[in-house]
Specification:
Length: about 425
């Protein structure tokens, strides 16, 4: 039954990728990588499908909520990066950056009620509140949550501690399409049905601010600039965000996420409804967002793999572009597949040493309005090869080489190195 279910998922995603990447230069490479990963996963699932061990991966907030170490809880993580671009006919300076330092605090009022907050300092000088929400455990399988929360889209938006992913920088699609870290104010429910290894999340949240005395959306990174981040939020209607994560097979986490709603606009504030022109302008400043993603993470002994597929459809883009002079596309897609292997044990090392390779592909102008031209620079393939050296499970030294090529055949190469840490 499990293998039949996995096979159906594979056939669906495989055909989906072929359709997305039709007539593109990277299609054959992606198909081979994805097929290889699936064959390996099916092989290992078949060998272990009778193992009833259920293991859920937890991010820092979930770890604090489930902690039994006392009422006041503390944790932290951070990253320091070095980036050096290369080009055939140009010279670039490298950059060093304390990219982020994050402090997490939690307090348990009683066995059911807890509060989690996360304060992030980026680039030394920018301070953000990344999370601040109340969690009430009404039942073992039901948690009520409200406050500033991470949108449960994909892997990295919720699991972005530097020890949880390979590569110095986060995967490219988690910057361009899912604007990691994406957080908004809202309320909803979350919980685990541990008997079947299923976690669910469902939230009503404010939408991104697409227009505020000017446009906030763009063709290159559609909704990244529209995140409201809990700061003096503009809201007319609430959007819906949800995720299901299956972790009932040892070593495998499979997730499906969705986000559906509208962007907010300051033009609706104090709007004179008798003015047809102003009403039409306000309507044109808001777009509809329909986003879905599917992802997996798998680990068996020294082998590890992960992948993600994202599809986003935006409505009312022609009207939005007309009043803002922007180039927002109608349909965006992105995906990546990654494999790694811990060679530490083969080298008689006590700690993990993981070489990896990741292939990414995304296009924010996959489909555009009839009167709009595609920008080929928004279509990119990225190949990242690197290594993660864990000095201990909570401290990692990373290095990778990233090759990027867009639809105009413009190539960019970057060497990245850095350190990352997480502790509690």
């Amino acid at each position: 039954m499990i293998l039949k279910f996995c096979s159906q998922i594979n056939n669906f995603i495989f055909l989906f990728l072929i359709n997305l990447n039709k007539n593109r230069f990277a299609s054959e490479i992606m198909k081979k990588i994805y097929t290889l990963i699936f064959i390996l996963i099916v092989h290992f699932v078949n060998a272990q499908s009778t193992d009833n061990t259920k293991r859920q991966l937890k991010n820092s907030a979930q770890t604090l909520i489930d902690s039994k170490d006392g009422n006041l809880l503390m944790a932290a993580y951070g990253e320091v990066h070095f980036n050096q671009p290369f080009a055939d006919n140009a010279q670039y300076n490298g950059s060093l950056d304390v990219h982020r330092q994050v402090l997490l605090f939690g307090y348990k009022f009683d066995s059911k009620t807890s509060f989690i907050t996360e304060i992030e300092i980026e680039h030394i000088k920018e301070v953000y509140l990344e999370q601040a929400f109340l969690n009430y455990k009404a039942k073992p399988w039901l948690n009520l949550q409200a406050g500033l929360m991470l949108i449960p889209m994909g892997i990295v938006n919720e699991y972005h501690e530097p020890t949880t992913f390979n590569g110095v920088e986060r995967p490219m699609i988690n910057n361009v399409i899912i604007p990691t870290t994406w957080r908004e104010i809202g309320a909803g429910v979350a919980g685990n049905i541990s008997d079947i290894g299923l976690r669910y999340q469902l939230y009503a949240v404010n939408g991104p601010l697409g227009y505020d005395d000017g446009p906030k959306l763009s063709g290159r990174k559609p909704i990244r600039g529209a995140r409201q981040k809990g700061s003096q939020v503009t809201v007319s209607d609430f959007d819906l965000s949800g995720r299901l994560t299956y972790y009932g097979i040892k070593g495998l986490n499979f997730g499906f996420s969705g986000y559906f709603g509208q962007t907010e606009s300051s033009l609706f504030n104090n709007l004179n409804q008798d003015s047809t022109m102003l009403s039409r302008q306000a309507d044109s400043s808001s777009i509809g967002i329909n986003m879905i993603s599917s992802d997996f993470r798998y680990q068996l002994k020294n082998f590890e793999a992960r992948g993600e597929v994202i599809w986003m459809n935006l409505t009312n883009t022609n009207e939005y572009n007309s009043i803002t002079n922007r180039d927002l596309g109608k349909t965006t897609y992105g995906y990546y597949a990654e494999v790694g292997y811990n060679i530490g044990s083969a080298l008689n090392l006590k700690n993990k040493l993981v070489p990896f390779v990741r292939y990414s592909n995304y296009d924010t102008h996959h489909k555009v309005s009839a009167n709009q031209n595609k920008n080929l620079a928004y279509s990119n393939e990225v190949i990242t090869t690197g290594i993660s050296c864990f000095l201990n499970p909570n401290f990692v030294v990373k290095a990778d080489y990233q090759q990027q090529k867009n639809g105009n055949n413009t190539k960019t190469n970057t060497f990245n190195a850095g350190i990352g840490y997480w502790f509690r």
